[in-house]
Amino acid sequence: xxxxxxxxxxxLAILAFMVLAPMIALLTVPGTSFIESESLAxxxxxxxxxxxxxxxxxxxxxxxxxxxxxxxxxxxxxxxGKFPYRSFILKLFGLPLVVPAVVAVFGIVSVFGSGxxxxxxxxxxxxxxxxxxHIFFNxxxxxxxxxxxxxxxxxxxxxxxxxxxxxxxxxxxxxxxxALRENLPGVGVLVFMLxxxxxxxxxxxxxxxxxxxxxxxxxxxxxxxxxxxxxVVLAVLQFSLCAIVAMFSxxxxxxxxxxxTSSSLQCPVDLKTLALNSIILLVAVTYVAMPILAMLxxxxxxxILQVLMNPKLWRSAAFSLIIGLSAAMLSVLAAWLILQSxxxxxxxxxxxxxGYLEMVGSIVYVVPPLVIGTGxxxxxxxxxxxxxxxIPIVILVNAMMGLPFAIRSLGPTMxxxxxxxxxxxxxLNLKGWDRFKTIDWPPLxxxxxxxxxxxxxxxxxxLGVIALFGxxxxxxxxxxxxxxxxxxxxxxxxxxxxxxxxxCLLVFWLLEGLIGGGGDA
Amino acid sequence: xxxxxxxxxxxxxxxxFVNAYAGKQTLTIYTYDSFTSDWGPGPLVKKAFEEQCNxxxxxVGLEDGVALLSRLKLEAANTKADIVLGIDTNLTAEARAxxxxxxHLISANNTTLxxxxxxxxxxxxxxxxxxxxxxxELLSNPPxxxxxxxxxxxxxxxxxxxxxxxxxxxxxLLWMKKVYGDDVSIAWKKxxxxxxxxxxxxxxxxxxxxxxxxxxxxxxxxSPAYHIIAEDDQRFAAASFVEGHYQQIEVAGLVASSKQKxxxxxxxxxxxxxxxQSIIPTTNWMYPAxxxxxxMPPAFKGLIKxxxxxxxxxxEIAANRKLWVNEWLEAMAE
Amino acid sequence: MVEMLSISQLSFxxxxxxxxxxxxxxxxxxxxxxxxxxxxxxxGSGKTSLLNLIAGFNQASDGKILLDDKExxxxxxxxxxxxxxxQSHNLFPHLDVFTNIALGIRPSLKLSNEEQQAxxxxxxxxxxxxxxxxxxxxxxxxxxxxxxxxxALVRQHEIxxxxxxxxxLGPAMRTELxxxxxxxxxxxxxxxxxxxxxxxxxxxxxxxxxxxxxxxxTSIQETADLLNNRQRKExxxxxxxx
Lengths: 521, 334, 242
Description:
- Helices cover 76% and strands 0% of the residues of chain A.
- With 521 residues, chain A is mainly α.
- Chain B is built from 15 helices and twelve strands.
- In chain B, helix 8 (184-192) crosses helix 15.
C-alpha cells in the first residue's frame, strides 16, 4: 500500500502558528476583554448582526454572479481556441487582481460614475457598485482558474458529442459540467473569500455604513476602538464562517471518475455559436478592459515623465518585485508541499481528508493581515528590532495570502500527475528530484508559471502589512501611490497606478513565459 | 531572497554602527506616512533639523494618527519612539491616558492658534478646519450653513468619509454633534439623502470629487490653497458655514521612556520655530500653529476664515466617541 | 446501385502540431455490406485519420465518400450514418449504462416506449441484462466496450468505425466480442471498418484487410494472403519476420 506523504503537515503547522500565535498575542494585550459587559453589548448589537448579514449577502451575490459569468466566458474561451490575441487577453485577465482597491474604485467610477462612459449616477453607490467592482476583480480570475477544466475533457468525448449530435446544453450537461465539478467549488470558495474580506471597495462604493463588512468591523476594533481581543474574536468569526462555506461547497465537489487526459479541445463549432462566443468574449474583455483603460487615460493626462523620472518609483518597483517574487516562491513551495500530501491521499482514495488539507491551506486567507501583522508585531517588538523583521514578515504574510491561489493553480495537475504516474514511478523507482524533473515538472510548468504570476502580482499590489511597520526607506509601489494620493497628487497617482499595472503585466508575461514555457493556460 | 533580506539588514546595522561611531545620536519620530513622504514636510524637516543638531532624525511613517496611537499602545514602554508627531486633538486624551508621555516643559505662548494652548503634554504644530470643498464653476451658490446643507432639499450632494476609518470622517461626526447636539440623529437622517457615498479615507472621497461624483466633498478649508499654489488652479473653494467649522489641531509629544529627552525637547523647540513652521503650509497644507500671518504664503490669505472654531474638549471625545459613532451608525442604517 | 461504401481519392493534409510537419494523405477503398474490413498498418500511417474523415471529425480537401452511391460528406458528424468506437473513453463515466446507451438514440433522453424497449433489447443482445443501472466504473473493460457496441446498435447507422476497440482486452474477450460484432454486422448488413494492431483480430474478423501506409491504402487482399504477403516491403517491415 502506498503511504501518503507527510509534507503537508509541517507547512500546515507553520500556517497554524502564523495564525494562532499572533491571535493569542493580541488576546494578551490589555484592552477591554470580550466578556466584559460593555463588550457583551457589542456582541448582541444590531450593528454586528447587520454587518454579518451584509458581509455574507454581498459575498454570496458577488460570488454567484462572478462565477456564473465566468463560466459563460470561460466556455466561450475554451471553444474559441483561435480568438485573436487570446493569450494577451488571458494575461490582461490577471491584472484586476493587482489593482489596489482605491485605484479600482477610481477606474470603476470613471466608467460607471456620473461623468463616466456608462453613467449610472447615484445608483452606482450601493450593492450595484459593489457587485460591479467584485465582478471586475473576480470574473477574470475565475476564468483563468476554470479554463483548464475544459482541457481535461477527453478528446473522444468531444467526438462522441459530435457524432451523437449533442446540442450545446447537452454538451454542457454531459461533458463540461462533470469536468468542472472538480474545480468549481474551490474556485467558488476562493472568490467568496475575496469578496467576504473586501474592505475599501465595499465601503466606498457601498454608499454608506449600511455596506459594512466584517473586515471593516475588525479594522475598527483594532484601530479606532483599540480592542485587540474583540478584533481577534471577530477574525475567528470570519474564519469560521468561511470554513463553514468551504465545507459546504466541498460537498459539491466531485472528482472525475476516470483518469483525466489532457487534450487539445476538438469541439464542434458552427457559425452561429462562433458568432455568439465572439460576442460574449468581446463583452467580457470590454468589461474588464474599460476600468483599466480609464486608468490609462487618467495616466496619459498626468505628468508621465515627472513620475517616471522619480528614482523612488523605480526603487519602490524593485522592492515590490522582490517582495512579490519571494512571496510567490514561498507560496508555490508551500502549496506544492501541501498538495504532495493531499494528492497522495486522493490516490489512496481518502478524498475527504485530502480535501480538508487543501481547504485548511486555503482559508488562512480570510484571517485579516492586519490581525496577523499586529499580532506578530506584539510578539516581536519587545524582543527584537521590528524593522529588521518587517521585510521577512511582509513576505511571509503575502505568501500566506497567496496560498489559495497557488493551491488552486497547482492542485488539478498535481492530482493528475499522481493518478497517472504514481505506479509507473514506483515501478521505475523514480523518486525525489529525478521524478520531479522528468515526470512532474513538464506538466506542472504552466500551472506553476500561473501561480507565480498570480501571487507575485497579488503581493505587488498589496498595501496591507508593509504600512503596518512604517519601516523607513522601504516603500512599495502601492504605498508610493497612497502617498501621492494623500498629498493631493491625484494625477501623479494615476501615472503610478498605470505604471504598476504595466509593470505587473510585464512580470506576468515574463513569469508565465519563462516558467510556463509560453502559450496560455 | 533571504540573502537580500540579510544584505538589507546588514546594511542597516552598518549604518547604525557608523552613526554611533561618528558620535551622532539618532532621534526617532513616529508620525503618519504622508508627513514623511517625498511630498510631505518630512524630508525638509529632517534636513533643517539635522543641520542644527548634529544628530540623525529617523521617521517611522505609519498609516495615520490612529495607527500611531495604537502602535504606541502595543509597544508601551518598549517603544523606540522618542517623539510622537501627528496625533490630533481628537486623540490627545486617549494618548495622555496611556501614561507614555512626559510633559514637554516648553512654552507655547508663541502659538498663532485661534484658541489659547495650555496642554502640558502635547505641543501643536499645525491646525486646520474641516470644510466642504467645491468647484466654483460647477456650483455657483453653495450652502452657507451646515443647517442649510442638512435641511434644504435642494442642497448639493456630498462625499464624506467614514468616522470609523478616517480622521476627517470623525471630524464631520463631531462637527454635526457640536451643531446639532442631541438632535444629531435626525440631522444625519436628513443629510444621508445627500451623501453620495462614505469613503474609507480622505483620498478616495477627494479623488471621487475630482472625478465629478458629487459637487462637494468633506476636506479642509486649506485644500483650495493646494490647487492655487501647486496647480495654479483657481476653481476650487471651501464653503463657509455660519455655525463655524470644526477644528483639528495636530500635535507632538515627548515619549517618557525616551533616552534622549534633551534632544527630543530640542526638536520640540525646533518644531515651534519659524524654520519648521514655514515648511508646513505648502507641504502639509494646513495652518502652521506658530507662524506670524505675514510669513504665510499669499494664497492662504484668500481662504475662508471660519467665524467660529468648534472643538470638543478632548476628554469629552474620549468618553463619548464610541457612543457617538454608534449613534451615527444607527441613524445611517435606516 | 451498388450497396457498398466507396471511398475515392479522399485527400487530407495531416498537420502534426508537435513538430510542425504536414503529411499529405489520399485514400481509395471499397467495403461491402455485411463486411468488417480490417485496416492495419504502422502507427502514424493514417488509419485513424481515415476514420475521422469518414466520421466527419476532419474535413477532406478533395475526394468522395459514397454510401450506396450517395455522397455523405456534406453532412455534419451527427447527420452521417456513422457510429464510432474508440479504444477508451467511449462512455460518460458519470452516467449509468442505460443512459449511456439511450444517448445514442436521443441526447435529450426523452425516449418513447419503443425506444426504451430497443435499449433493453440491445442490452440483452450484448449480454448486459441487469447492468442498466451500473456506472461504467463498475464494469470490466470488456463490458464497457459491449455497452459502447450496444449504443452503436441502437443508433442503427449503417457504417461502424472501430478504432482499436479491443486493444485493452484479453484474447478470450477479444474473440468473443469479435464474434458478437461479426454476427451483428452481417445480420444488419452494416459496413464496418476496424483499425487493429493484432493480425489475429484481422484474421478472425475480416475476410478482407487493407494495408495502410504513409497516408494511403497500399493494398487490399484476402486477410490471410495479406498477412503472408512477403513481397511488399512495408508489410514485411510492419509484421516482422515470422
